[in-house]
């Protein structure tokens, strides 16, 4: 199987999420922002999430190891997939972080070379590739 480069996403690479909060929680957040504890709502929420992730870091690390997940970013170029196809190999993509497939990868090449996809985080690929692989994404 081909060895792929795994890199951590840069600090500026983020995904947007939406959460719903009750008025009391939101009011408390606004109060802490007004009092100068945080620069804005996002700063408080990001800090709270990082604190929870730090609290559970051991469980995350053990699970990543047990499930053989790639931690960070894994990118699949057209060349990676063509080499796998030519070698008669298929990828089982398992990533905690960001998995991406190059924009020049055709749906046909993706179907030939990707057996399954499990991504805890974000998965970037063209809409056509995502549609072709829909049945293989867990």
TrEMBL record:
Q: Mind listing the GO biological process terms from this record?
A: regulation of DNA-templated transcription
Against Gene3D superfamilies, the record matches this protein to:
Met repressor-like
> Tell me, what's a Pfam family for it?
RHH_8
Q: Which InterPro entries match?
A: Arc_rbn_hlx_hlx, RHH_8, Ribbon_hlx_hlx
Superkingdom, taxonomy of origin: Bacteria
Residue stretches spanning the membrane = none
This chain belongs to the protein called: CopG family transcriptional regulator
Upper taxonomic lineage: Bacteria, Pseudomonadati, Pseudomonadota, Betaproteobacteria, Burkholderiales
């Amino acid at each position: 199987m081909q060895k792929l480069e795994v890199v951590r996403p840069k600090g500026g690479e983020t995904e947007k999420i939406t959460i719903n909060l009750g008025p009391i929680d939101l009011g408390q957040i606004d109060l802490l922002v007004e009092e100068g504890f945080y620069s804005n709502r996002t700063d408080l929420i990001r800090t709270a999430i990082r604190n929870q992730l730090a609290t559970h870091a051991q469980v995350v690390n053990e699970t990543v190891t047990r499930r053989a997940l790639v931690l960070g970013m894994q990118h699949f170029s057209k060349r990676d997939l063509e080499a796998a196809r030519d070698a008669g190999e298929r990828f089982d993509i398992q990533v905690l972080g960001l998995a991406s497939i190059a924009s020049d990868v055709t749906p046909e090449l993706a179907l030939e070379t990707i057996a399954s996809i499990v991504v805890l985080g974000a998965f970037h690929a063209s809409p056509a590739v995502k549609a072709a692989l829909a049945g293989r994404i867990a």
